[in-house]
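Researcher: Dear colleague, please comment on this protein.
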Amino acid sequence: FGSLIQRIMEKVPGINETILSVHCHNDLGMATANSLAAIKNGARQIE
């Protein structure tokens, strides 16, 4: 999931002018890990 956020941050023009937010569900027990990976790779808000 972190690599997806990283690619979004690299490829979307003007992304640094927005707040990238993620909302992870815990169906597979990965919500916390995915949320932390998102923050590490540029997301600015976790829901």
Observations:
- Residues 11 and 26 are 27 Å apart (CA to CA).
- The longest helix spans residues 2-11.
